[in-house]
Amino acid sequence: MKKIKFEKFTIKDIVFLAVITAVTLLASGPVAPLVMTVTKLGTQAFAMALPFSIFTSVGLRKVKKAGSLTIIGLFSGLFLLLMAPVMFFNQFVATLLSEGLALMLFKTYKDKITVLFSSGLFSFFTIPTTVAVNILLKDSSLSQQIGNPITFVLLVLGTTVLGFLGATIGNKIADELQKAGKL
Amino acid sequence: MHRTEKNLHPILSLVFSLFLFVSGLLFVKEKWFLIYILTFLIILLIFRFGGTILKIMPLILIFGSLMALITTINGSRWDVLYSFYRVFALVPAITLSMSIKPVHLVRSFNQIKVPHWISLGFLIVIRFVRIFLDEIRQIRQAIILRGIRFTETPVLWGRAFFIPLIIRVLSISENLAVSLETRAFSTEVEGTAYETITFEKRNYIFAIMSSTCLAVYIYLFIGGEL
Amino acid sequence: MSISVEVKNLSLSYDFTEGIPANKRMWVFKDLNFQIKKGEFVLLTGFSGCGKSSLINMMNGVIPNLKNAYTEGSIYINGQKVENTTVRERAKHIGSVFQNPREQIIFDEILDEIVFPMENLGIDPRKMRESLKRLLEMTGLRADAKTAILSGGEKQKLMTACTLGMGQKVLILDEPLANMDTRSSEELLKLLKRLSEEKEYIVILAEHRQEKVLPYVDRVFSFVKSTQKNVLIDIEIWKDTDTYRKRNFTGSLKNVFKPVNHLKENNEVLFSIKNMDYKIGERMLFKDFSWEIKRGEEWVVLGENGCGKTTLFKLLNDFEKPTSGSISSFYSKKEKRKKVGYVLQNPDYQLFMPRVKDELYLNVKSKDFVYELIRVFMLEDMLDRHPLSLSEGQKRKLGFACIISNEPEVLFLDEPTVGLDMECIKQLFEALSLLRIRSRKELTVISISHDKRVIPYLGNRILTLPQD
Question: Per mean pLDDT, which range of A109-123, C13-27, C201-215 is the poorest?
Fold first, then answer.
């Protein structure tokens, strides 16, 4: 049976993951006003799903080591720590969960499907993290946060679909760059 | 040698920023909420954070009003007020975190033995967000120069945006990694520090004042009476 | 022990075919042997993609530690064999300076950037302070200045200072002058010469623009096409730089092209800038600036780094807005996208299609012209390749071809010859001549160049922007 292999990260890996984090944060920039002004649960995840999954999947295709997505989450969390400290946990926990699940299922990033799941599920996992934060800090119950259940289900579904769509696009870009000898 | 800075120790700022962020959101519905905010604004003013507060205040007011406005759609009068308070509650936390100089935070991280690769990654993210802002602008200009419009050929536009952007990511990160390694950076070997970030007297005073005030408000929050 | 760099039977190959015997393998270079003694200043030069950077990367350990390649032979620094050491170990002996300093700076302030490598080497803080003071004096930089606002030349100086602070006596510089203006280049070259003469540093500098560097160097290592089978490159070592100069500068552009000399009069004004001010932050880049460009004119914009040449191009192309004053154009905004071509300095921004031919035929006016361009740039064998798999020189030519294949009426060229060898430059001018003919000499060209060799062939009108 295959086991999850943990390899050491080189400086080159760390630098690449940090740079891709910077781009991911920037690419989410245009949707930031929406994320900040709309408080409906799931809207944030829905808006961020596409840009996050495109870039993180390219990142995972380049650095195929267990822990890469969590490092991206750590770096983006540290960056957001200076703006909204709670976002650190949101980013870090969501990457940990999605990467953990993908690696448990498929063991290695050498298979494209692991990359697809890991980066595709990230935005979905920010939803339960947000729920937990809201319950703890805003004293807002789960039913209050969900509001209209149909809208909520649509948002969750949309987030998941966009996450996987972005991860597929990212994988396609990575395939092309690999062919050109750039990845 | 250390630089003479007015700022607090970065890790102290970070820790209190986190505390104030959480406590601010927790205390929103308390009747003494405004006094709580005022207390910490006064403490921050004493420690010369007036400039930063002034800088962020317009944004907080705009954003807070916007949130309040959205809540008017289906919320009560109190919900509208709490929406505004939730944004206003962030002022002390943001003031502290905004005052942290990334390089000082990194040096402090190194002093408390946080692995070098984490602090390096953090620095790179901060610096390269700015670099890529410029890169994205240049890519968008290049797209215009090749006569591609999103409205006419969205898929082609997507290619023209993502392929060069990722190529720039690859090229920049490779150059940077080579540059760092040839500048003897290592994740394993610990180097020396040009300066040490010291915990000066004002940090103790700030910590004692803030902790005392915070303790009082937590006491009130859990049902205590003065 | 005297400082020296010695290379014995050094070979490099990017041919990863498994089980291939050495005599069948394709080598970039094979069995190189040379020695560089203390105090020597050596120029590595040759055509685009000839392997200068590869040799440099083998010396500083980037190959094979960070970049894959098949290597043989030995490198000795001060008599010690180094090819099995890490980049960090080698960085204690060899300092490396690369191009694109903007992409290597990670700190906000100059001070932190300069002390960073010293900290990594574990240098005592007291010594760091002394070195810092010396380096700041030497480069004229200010410790508390923000790195983000430095000009390209200043950034390159900063990265050189970072390397000098590490205290190695062997310096390797990979095209450090690529984006530097004349003044900054001369300052850097003088500094390097002083270090080699007075402090006995070994300086190894790779550079295309040899004429700039030749007065300063002791020897030239010229990378030439190999006569050996399965080997791409040989190195000719020239001790007499004058003889080298005479032999290598006779076949330049003047035997092939004529400088631009036609002067058009009474043509319509295509662009007109009137009393323009342009400010970036607190810095006034243009003050009360006026300029007119008429159809058929060929301008070359000159000026030191950071004086606003590229910004001027962006203003004329509506990518920036003037702070005050006006810019008017013969073309509407929509027409501009069809009739104005702009070749960016870095082709990576303009290439995105899956094949070279897709790139060339995108929005093209005449297929015949594209055939001609393919012939001129010798792209025939590359049409089905991915543009990003091409060498830097080939990408630059392709980027140029893609823009002119649309047969623009106005062509903006931002440093079109950077990083190109003479062969590629000739191809570029041949393509430009073809475009001039197709436009019946109505083509308007506005170029930016630091390359003195090509300025007369790019235009006959000069606009020199002052440094503020």
Answer: C13-27
Q: Do C87 and B181 touch (CB under 8 A)?
A: yes
Residues of C in contact with A177 (CB under 8 A): 388
Same structural domain, C11 and C128: yes
Q: Which of B5, B146, B149, B167 to mutate to test the interface with C (most CBs of C within 10 A)?
A: B146
pLDDT over 70 (residue C60): yes
pLDDT in tens, C170-207: 999 998 887 677 777 888 899 899 999 988 999 999 98
Kindly state whether C162 is in contact with chain B, defined as any CB-CB distance less than 8 angstroms: yes
Helix axes B10-26, B91-98, angle to 10 degrees: 170
Residue C318 has pLDDT above 70, yes or no: yes
Check CB contact under 8 Å for C117 and B185: yes
Contact assignment for B142 to C117 by CB distance below 8 Å: no
**Are C296 and C147 part of one and the same domain?**
no
Residues C24, C82 within the same domain: yes
Reported ipTM: 0.88
Residue C33: what are its φ and ψ, rounded to 5°?
Answer: -135, 125
Supply the DSSP symbol for C319. Answer: S
CATH number of the domain that C208 lies in?
Answer: 3.40.50.300
* C64 found inside a domain: yes
> Residue C335 corresponds to which tokens in the numbers above?
């027409």
Residue B4 has what pLDDT? Answer: 47
Asked if B29 and A139 come within 8 Å (Cβ–Cβ), the reply is yes
Cα–Cα distance between C287 and C76 in angstroms, integer? Answer: 55
C216 & C316 share domain: no
Beta bridge partners of C46: C223
Q: Which of C224, C251, C278 is the last residue of a domain?
A: C251
**pTM for this one?**
0.87
Residue A177 contacts B, CB cutoff 8 Å: yes
Q: In this complex, do A177 and C66 lie within 8 Å of one another by their Cβ atoms?
A: no
Neighbours of C401 (CB within 10 A): 24
Contact B13/B99 with Cβ under 8 angstroms? yes
Q: Does C227 share its domain with C297?
A: no
Partner-chain residue, chosen from B101, B178, B184, that has the shortest CB–CB distance to C120: B184
Find chain A residues with C-beta within 8 A of C389's C-beta.
180-182
Q: How far is B129 from chain C (nearest CA, A)?
A: 11
Domain membership of residue C256 (yes or no) is no
Percentage of residues in chain C with pLDDT exceeding 70?
Answer: 94
At C265 the pLDDT is 63
Mean pLDDT of chain A: 88
C246 and C291, same structural domain?
A: no
pLDDT at position A134: 76
Q: Is C186 exposed, middle or buried (0-12, 13-18, 19+ CB in 10 A)?
A: middle
Please tell me the least confidently modeled range out of A102-116, B39-53, B134-148, C261-275.
C261-275
Residues C237 and C154 placed together within one structural domain of the fold: yes
Q: How many domains does chain C have?
A: 2
Please indicate, yes or no, if residue C382 is contained in any of the structural domains.
yes
Please report whether residue C360 resides in a domain: yes
Same domain, C79 and C219: yes
Residues in chain C: 468
Reduce the DSSP state of residue C419 to 3 states and report it: coil
* Residue A180: closest C-alpha in chain C: C389
Residue C382 domain boundaries:
269-464
Cβ within 8 Å of C, B 24-63: none
Contacts of C361 (CB under 8 A, 6+ apart): C367, C370, C405
Where are the domains positioned within chain B?
1-100+196-226, 116-186
- On the question of pLDDT at B195 being above 50, the answer is yes
Is the pLDDT at B6 greater than 70, yes or no? Answer: no
Per-residue pLDDT band for A32 (boundaries 50, 70, 90) equals low
Residue C14 pLDDT > 90: no
